[in-house]
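Instructor's aside before we start: the two examples that follow are unrelated to each other. I chose them only because their records fit on one page, so don't look for a connection. First example below.
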Amino acid sequence: MRSVSDVNEIVAPDEFVQALLSLREAPGLPRILLEEVAPPSRLAPFTAAVAMRTIDEDDVGQPLGNGRLVVLHDPDGQVGWNSTFRLVAQLRAQIDPEMGADPLLAEALWGWTQDCLDDAGTGYHDLTGTVTRELSEAFGGLVLRGSNLFVEIRASWSPNTQFIGEHMVGWAALIRRTAGVVPSLFLEGI
């Protein structure tokens, strides 16, 4: 399997190139920083990945939320995709203890996942995923940090078209919403 960086060895199909260009043309992502990262290499013949993190940070300088969006393309399709494209996404965000105590937290976050993708105007099918709650308690010299509660959402879905910019917008919105980061009207271009 090859990544898009192996272009010298193999030419990426136009459909995959158009998908990546649609990511660049996606509308602004307020309060989110993007970085192209190395994609997984064995999931599909053509892959690309973008890391995302919130501009807002916790008391020790860590982003309140971060995540990743991976674009997979197999011109022949794969079992379970029902498409030649598959998007795989992950996010991790710190949440407040009240939210973490909610017994319906996982169901609510999965609902947010669908809401954010729908609100961004995406078209998709075969959405699957998991929601995990993690409590981290510090000891010794780290006691000042106390306990932290995190959630992780992992999801994958098949887009209805190769134009996937809206999918990145939807996933960024989910990162912000889960981390409690509210875009300011004055900072829309950040």
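Example two begins here.
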Amino acid sequence: MTSPNRLRLGWIGLGSMGMAMATNLQKHLSKTSSPSLVYHNRTMSRGDALQDLGANPSASVADLASNADIIFLSLSDDSALDSVISSLSGPGCAADMSGKIVVDTSTVHPDTTAAAHQRLTNVGAKFVAAPVFGASPVAAEGQLLFILAGPDDAVQALEPFLVGVMARSAIRLGEDVTKSSLLKTAGNFVTAGMMEVVAEAHVFAEKTGLGNEAMEALLEQQYGPLAYSMSRRLTTGAYMPPPGERPWSDLNLAIKDVGHGISAASATGVRLHVGEVAIRHLNEARTRDRPLDSSSMYGVLREEAGLDFATNLIKNRDNVQ
């Protein structure tokens, strides 16, 4: 096996998550005197800061594939993944994909993952499904949780670039790539359900006069770091980012993710009742004319209780009365 220090790595997709992960990866490559990361994005200017760190832009997906042994993908949805896989595996791809490893960190439906695996296998490439848990600030800190499924040798080749670089830990699920997407889908359902409960608890605290500060203290000390971090997204106003700022975790992607969970469950005769409640509130939040975070069901729940969608903190921050 090629030494990790000599492997050529590529990155496709520089949204908030992809940019954070690719940045940490390029810093690691520089520190270990390894070949620089090559990257491609639909809007190439998104990679300017990455280029400043030493990464090299690639004009096309095929060009990147020709200059990388391991290709990481971080894409917004199933159609974006399908498009990139077509570029990597279709007859128009100029790169020889034999022996290359394609690692998909995107959150997509298990059926989409299965199709990507089959198409890449047909051209001699190895596919690893590697969706991640954690919003963009967690990605920036290199503290994501990776869910890995794919050929053992391909997963082993990735390990030097995960824990301590982009990840705090990784869960291995064997070679069936659909299992990785299924676990990520299930996890997204749990996350959305917990956020729904935390948001409802805060509305309850405000309307009863108990107060958000007391509720947040309880969530931190009784229910742990995850519940507390969700609470902070509400009490700091992150659920409704300032105009012009990107959300920690995009509302539209959350709707897509929870929808995948409901669909996958329905296919096996299971109904995710809490997921249905969460996605209804998320869809109601989407009617606002500004980018919102996946925690923005809080604003909808506030309105249902007779409060304004925006807290006083947000109104003062944005100079809106």
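The longest helix spans residues 177-208.
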